[in-house]
């Protein structure tokens, strides 16, 4: 059988949790930019992926030309 002290502690924890949730919800606001729209979120992720890929590709190209000392296809000797 469950003791009264465990039931009392469980009840107190439940009340404290409910008060914390109610306090957090009291100050919630509507977001400035609503990202629940799927197209906007997809556009943001695609744009950030494109920018990140461009930066990574540029950095890799710069590093490879420094290492080999060549600059593009025009400097190749066939």
| Range of strand content | under 5%
Structural class: mainly alpha
Secondary structure tally, helices: 2
The percent range for helix content is: 55-70%
**What's the end-to-end separation, in Å?**
89 Å
Largest sheet, in brief, is: none
Query: What's the Cα radius of gyration?
Result: 29 Å
How many structural domains? Answer: 1
Give the tally of β-strands. 0
Principal-axes shape call:
elongated
The low-confidence parts are none
N to C succession of SSEs: HH
Which whole number gives the mean pLDDT? 76
Name the descriptors:
single chain, 78 residues, mainly alpha, 2 helices, elongated
What does the model show?
The chain is mainly α and 78 residues long. It has helices at 4-26, 38-68. It has one domain. The chain has 2 helices and no strands. The longest helix is centred in the last third of the chain and has 31 residues, at 38-68. The termini are far apart.
Outline:
This protein has helices at residues 4-26, 38-68. With 78 residues, it is mostly helical.
Helix/strand layout:
Layout lengths: L3 H23 L11 H31 L10
């Amino acid at each position: 059988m469950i003791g009264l002290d465990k039931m009392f502690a469980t009840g107190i924890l439940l009340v404290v949790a409910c008060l914390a949730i109610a306090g957090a919800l009291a100050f919630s606001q509507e977001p400035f930019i609503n990202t629940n729209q799927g197209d906007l979120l997809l556009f943001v992720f695609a744009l950030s992926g494109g920018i990140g890929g461009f930066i990574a590709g540029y950095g890799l190209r710069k590093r490879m030309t420094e290492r080999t000392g060549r600059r593009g296809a025009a400097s190749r000797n066939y």
